[in-house]
Amino acid sequence: MPVKVEYNQFRFSQARYNKPQDVELFGCDKANEFIKTANDIVRQIARAGWDIPGVDVTIRYYGSGKSIMKYCSSVSFDADQGDGATEKVTLGFANKAGPSVGRWNSLGSASQFKIGEEELSLNSDRSGDWRKHAKLDKAVAAITPMLEKLRSLPSKEGFDVDHPEGDINLREICTTVPTPAPADFPTIYAWVERSDAYKALGIVDRHKDDDYARDEEFRLSGNGWRFVTTDWGIKWDEIPAGGWEGYEYASPDINVRPSGLTHTSSGILPVEVNLKHLDDIYVADMAPYEKAREEDWKRAKAEGRKEYTNKEIGDQRRASIVTFVPAAEYKGGYEKPVYMIGRQLHADEARGMAGPVSVAMEDGFVVARMRDVATDRDVIIYEGGNELYHKNSALRDARELAGIFHLEPEVAPEILDALEAHRRKLREEYKGDKAMSVILG
What we know:
By secondary structure, this protein is α+β, with helices and mostly antiparallel strands. It is built from nine helices and 19 strands.
């Protein structure tokens, strides 16, 4: 079987290869022997060119920003059990989480074993499996024949070329030819929460230590809420390839806060996205989902119900699930397209929009806006009626957004006066209530 590469959101990122390391834990000789034997299997697979008949290999990308690594995350094969019978063996190579081994050490070092229903886990230094000698002996016995078989294979040219991203064969396997976005592909807009706004704007948080400070090197993470899950009666075989993954959501309409079928957006900062490549980008039409919800709600009200049935919720989601396609295959025509971004975007494809923020009354509505300094374009942050609730909400959102830029929003005096008059009224109404006096100030 060809080698499987799990890029996650890092398909086009340079990723250094973490070779297996023979980590040892004091007093655990049998566990140490298992780790070395399993790691040797990966080394021999690499020497033979990675793509080995009868051996399934998975390479996984991991990291953040520009600090990306890849490692062999799993190896599986059929082990001979005698009399022609075989049993599937799976080896896992995960980060060692325990304090003795080290926080970021040995990603790619052997840590798991499974054959049939029997499992062994060395993911943590505190795992009791480090000292389960019978299980460890069985694991070593099960994988040693495969190690000897691999040692007998010829070496593939390029295996011994030393490079930070791995040998020549691994680099070829992990190289993806990008699918260019067509010239008429639309500009789309994502909305991020305040916690992600600094990344989107390219602002470095110097208060973070070196383990985390690399995050400022991307604008959008390419990861987030799943488009759909198996809740509400939805079966696995109903979910299209890619539908289970987590994404950043974007829309060609800047005034839409896009989301998938499992959440609603609470984004505060708009991000302009001009994609260069369509790899790991998907599209779905949310209009069928929204229309189904409207029709079901009318029926629920007519029947005297105050909520949807589980079947209705599942069918509402199915209405849009069937529209989920890779962006490269999208032919247009969706009424309310939502684009799902499944890879990390850098400054060449995404830009956090920024500018002065204001709140004003317009034709009886309260409107909070931001004027993007790069395009001189107004973006509506909040829009609502003349009620105090909407005035307070618009001011709250405007202050939150302006605070990202260390500014105060420009607010129409009539809005501030209305809110202050309401506070004075409440102070008078609750002047004998100490708790409310503290809240109202």
